[in-house]
Design goal:
Elements: H1 11-18, H2 28-38, H3 51-57, H4 62-76, H5 80-104, H6 107-114, E1 118-123, E2 126-131, E3 140-144, E4 152-164, H7 166-169, E5 175-176, E6 196-197, E7 202-214, H8 220-230, H9 237-266, H10 271-285, H11 290-307, E8 310-312, H12 317-323, E9 326-329, E10 341-347, E11 350-353, H13 363-374, E12 379-383, E13 386-390, H14 393-404, H15 409-415, E14 418-425, E15 430-436, E16 441-447, H16 449-453, E17 456-461, E18 464-467, H17 470-485, E19 489-498, E20 514-523, H18 528-539, E21 543-547, H19 552-562, E22 570-573, H20 574-578, H21 582-588, E23 592-596, H22 600-612, E24 617-621, H23 627-632, E25 635-639, H24 645-650, E26 653-655, H25 660-700, H26 709-719, H27 721-727, H28 751-776, H29 780-798, H30 809-812, H31 818-836, H32 838-843, H33 851-875
Parallel strand pairs: 9-21, 9-24, 17-20, 21-23, 22-23, 24-25, 25-26
Antiparallel strand pairs: 1-2, 1-3, 3-7, 4-5, 4-6, 4-7, 8-26, 10-11, 10-20, 12-13, 14-15, 15-16, 16-19, 17-18, 19-20
Helix pairs in contact: 3-5, 4-5, 4-9, 4-10, 9-10, 9-25, 10-26, 11-25, 11-27, 12-25, 13-14, 18-25, 21-22, 25-27, 25-28, 26-29, 27-31, 28-29, 28-33, 29-31, 29-33
């Protein structure tokens, strides 16, 4: 069957296209036949990777392959201890990777959980309740308050029907549905298709019935499921950088191996011995502990972020936010409070902003608020934090206003009991309630301004009743337009007193000859903390972008108030976006700060357009409609309170307070973590360069090896790794959020970092070589022991240098990171133990040193701190900050 634009079709056209009858529905036989044809009304899910496949993929990394080769060669050469240690590290990283990946892909399972379990249908002319999975196109479905919509339905009959489509559009305000409405525009936004009900949405008020037009993967929900399946996760900047680093180190290691092997053979050394030496150098070139250190530092970041209301689902995401250059945020509930709030009143020919709630004796104001409170179906219940309103968001805003001004609906309902009502009707756009007074009754009516004005013949001004003139009407309409221009949703309030209630046949008399009291304007207001967060974003060089399913006028008003939309920025609708091809969007995307009335596929296109410029994009969202974009973005952040399971499962992190400011806090945390990972990399690689230089010089000079492979592994995995790990919790630089985001296309290494690694590595290597030369005067083993001791202990001193590349280690403060002090002390104790304790010294092939030799070791070991302090002092004006 060809796809039809269902919202443009009439009842007769839909019946004809689907060969059904709205009155009788399908026969059971026809329904069974169609179930075979279209398949069950369920979302399909692709098979997930097995644990075994996930495990195999962990071993495809270039650095991991080099490490495995090194382990195999070490084992063949009889160095089983070295081989076992390397393989244990590789296996640990693989297991951690599998655990993370196994948690990641639950999006479609969550989508399935959102599906309605049962559906009320009409088959063979009789009502029936069936499993929603058995629905087929052409079925007639009946909807009532509280129902999940089980499929995509073209509505035909509606009575005050309101459906919340937040999961699909992102907007929590229920949509008034009208089955009799015929829509002409084919590309009208989903949120404006008032004659349609979509799978996964919820009926909040009224009732309706319609014809199922799409089921399963053909529904709007199914389209989202397909997009989730087709969107491949994007590698994080950290993953890309570490992958690049692994290749560089691996190639460098192979190059060094080959060079040393050739030189040694030319010197006439034994080929087998030179092969062994080459492997030792390869081991020295690769920081075996780096993958584990990065993993643990990220895990520590996860714990710190949890305290800041951000739950991380995928470890690399901790750092990715620190690289973010663009944050695309949903509006409702993230940038705003997700609670309709009355912000402005108009009465007595003047505007009044809603104040802090101080009680006002103004009778006119009290009458205006009382009208909104009593002509209202909201319920109030006591909660831990005080009264809590439950009901339609617009109505709860009116009752909340009453509470703010000391007018409690519960008390008013007792004093002025409701005795009659005319419910809200989408055609009349009015609601009326009648309340008993001491004498007679009072009628309260609220509704759309134009409709209510037509029902009024008087207006309350300065405490007096005046006949409603054309001038009054013009003033009211002007006030209505002014409030609407601020994106306020406006309701008019009116009342009148009557002696008796007319009979039901004449109830429309209740809405005649009313007295206009005033207008109320409401909006879902911005979060105060979001304003500061947007300001911080801009200060940090990050562009905030609003993407919402709401109307453009509302989105623009909120974006301006938050500071997202400035003079040179553009705001466009989903329809305008649809008219652009991908290349046009890419060219304009940098100028657009607000997207309104967008569809799920639009969000993915926006994210892709930014990524084509090489930007790192963070995306926040809460609905099913956000899931594909959350998955496509470099980092997806789902809302923890109002977020759907689908959004949470597709995201990399979950915000437990649904707050945009938490995203910005996470950006700061991500920057701290990356800065600390860079410190660890600088420390580890400068140490490794020292080891390489030490062995390289000794080989080139045809000396005995100053270090054995077990010494290199010990230093790399134990005495280096603990301090490198402690660097992961180093406190942040004070100006970290004043720095621009790192260039996403720049690798880990820049000229400044490379120069620091090289000169600091040369320093460590030459100091260890000096110790070897001094100790060799006794014997080779003593030389190796002193070289081994200086290499390890000088690196422990050097760790304090890398905490800042501009400030003195003493100015940073030795006691600002007590964990680092503990790690250095423990590593030093372990290093001294392997030399001083006979059982360990035998395993490590070293000898005990005398007092004079330990003094030489101590002097050479503290030298790095003094050398780097002098270099910092001489080059302070030219030193680049670690970014």
């Amino acid at each position: 069957m060809n796809k039809l634009i269902w919202h443009t079709k009439s009842l007769e056209e839909v019946e004809k296209a689907l060969e059904t009858s709205f009155e009788k529905g399908l026969s059971q036989q026809e329904a069974a036949k169609r179930l075979d044809q279209y398949g069950p009304n369920e979302l399909e899910q692709k098979g997930r990777k097995s644990i075994w496949n996930m495990l195999i993929e962990q071993f495809k990394d270039f650095m991991v392959i080099i490490l495995i080769i090194a382990a195999v060669v070490s084992g063949v050469l009889g160095e089983t201890t070295d081989a076992i240690i390397i393989l244990l590290i590789v296996l640990l990283n693989a297991v951690l990777g599998v655990v993370q990946e196994n948690k990641a892909e639950e999006s479609l399972a969550a989508l399935k959980r959102m599906s309605a379990p049962h559906a009320k249908v009409r088959r063979d002319g009789k009502p029936d309740v069936i499993d929603a999975g058995n629905l087929v196109p052409g079925d007639i479905v009946v909807l009532e308050t509280g129902d999940f919509v089980p499929a995509d339905i073209r509505l035909m009959e509606t009575t005050n029907l309101k459906i919340e489509e937040a999961a699909l559009t992102g907007e929590s305000v229920p949509v008034d549905k009208d089955g009799n409405k015929s829509l002409q525009e084919e590309d009208i936004p989903l949120g404006d298709r008032i004659n349609m009900a979509y799978s996964g949405s919820i009926v909040t008020y009224g009732r309706g019935a319609g014809i199922v037009v799409e089921t399963g993967m053909s529904t709007q929900m199914g389209r989202i499921a397909q997009m989730i399946q087709s969107e491949e996760g994007v590698k994080t900047p950290l993953q890309k950088r570490l992958e690049s680093l692994g290749k560089i180190l691996g190639i460098a290691a192979l190059g060094i191996c080959g060079l040393i092997f050739v030189v040694g053979v030319l010197y006439g050394k034994d080929i087998f011995a030179m092969f062994f030496t080459s492997v030792s150098l390869a081991v020295a070139a690769i920081p075996e502990g780096l993958p584990a250190i990065v993993t643990i530092v990220l895990a520590i970041g996860v714990q710190r972020m949890a305290k800041r209301n951000a739950i991380i689902r995928k470890l690399p995401a901790v750092e990715t936010l620190g690289s973010a250059t663009v944050i695309c945020s949903d509006k409702t509930g993230t940038l705003t409070q997700n609670k309709m709030t009355v912000k402005q009143l108009y009465f007595n020919n003047g505007f009044r902003d809603v104040d802090d709630g101080n009680h006002d004796d103004n009778h006119h104001l009290q009458l205006l608020i009382t009208t909104g409170v009593l002509c209202n179906d909201t319920q109030i219940r006591e909660a831990e934090k005080g009264p809590e309103t439950i009901g339609d968001p617009t109505e709860t805003a009116l009752v909340d206003l009453g509470l703010k001004y000391g007018l409690d609906k519960r008390t008013l309902d007792q004093d002025l009991k409701r005795v009659y009502e005319i419910p809200f009707d989408s055609e009349r756009k009015l609601m009326t309630t009648v309340h008993r007074m001491d004498k007679g009754f009072r009628v309260f009516t609220k509704g759309a301004t134009d409709e209510l004005l037509n029902k009024c013949n008087k207006i309350l001004l300065d405490g007096n009743l005046e006949s409603l003139t054309q001038q009054h009407i013009a003033d009211i309409q002007r006030a209505n337009e002014e409030m609407a221009s601020k994106a306020l949703r406006v309701l008019a309030m009116a009342y009148k007193d009557i002696d008796e209630i007319p009979d039901q046949d004449n109830e429309d008399q209740l809405e005649d000859e009313l007295i206009l009291v005033g207008l109320m304007g409401m909006i879902d207001p911005p979060r105060e903390e979001a304003k500061e967060a947007v300001r911080l974003c801009k200060r940090a060089g990050i562009k905030p972008v609003m993407i919402t399913g709401d109307h453009k006028i509302t989105a623009v008003a909120i974006a301006k108030e938050l500071g997202i939309l400035e003079e040179k920025d553009e705001a466009i609708t989903g329809t305008e976006l649809e008219a652009m091809d991908d290349e046009q969007l890419k060219e304009r995307v940098k100028q657009i700060s607000v997207y309104a009335r967008v569809a799920p596929e639009h969000k993915v296109r926006i994210v892709r357009a930014w990524q084509q410029w090489g930007q790192i994009v963070a995306m926040t969202g809460d609905g099913v409609n956000d899931a594909p974009a959350l998955k496509r973005a470099d980092i997806g952040a789902a809302m923890g309170i109002v977020g759907t399971d689908v959004a949470k499962e597709a995201a990399d992190m979950v915000l437990t307070d649904d707050n945009f400011s938490t995203v910005v806090s996470a950006v700061e945390e991500g920057r701290i973590i990356f800065a600390n990972i860079l410190k660890s990399i600088q420390f580890l690689l400068s140490c490794n360069v020292g080891e390489i230089l030490l062995l390289f010089i000794a080989t080139m000079l045809n000396w005995e090896e100053p270090l054995l492979p077990i010494h290199i592994l010990w230093v790399n995995l134990v005495t280096d790794s603990l301090p490198a790990l402690a660097l992961g919790v180093d406190p942040a630089e004070k100006d970290i959020m004043d720095q621009k985001p790192r260039d996403p296309n720049r690798g880990i290494f820049d000229a400044a970092l490379i120069s620091r690694i090289m000169y600091q590595g040369a320093m460590v290597g030459l100091l260890a070589l000096t110790a070897f030369v001094i100790g060799q005067g006794v014997d080779v083993t003593t030389g190796r022991t002193m070289s081994f001791a200086v290499l390890a202990l000088s690196q422990l001193t050097h760790v304090f240098n890398v905490r800042s590349n501009t400030k003195s280690a003493f100015k940073v403060g030795l006691f600002t990171n007590t964990k680092l002090l503990g790690a250095v002390a423990l590593s030093a104790l372990l290093q001294i133990s392997v030399i001083s304790i006979p059982v360990l010294s035998k395993i490590f092939k070293v000898v005990a040193l005398n007092g004079q030799q330990w003094l030489i070791v101590a002097g050479l070991s503290v030298a790095p701190l003094l050398i780097v302090e002098i270099i910092k002092l001489l080059t302070r004006n030219n030193t680049q900050k670690l970014k």
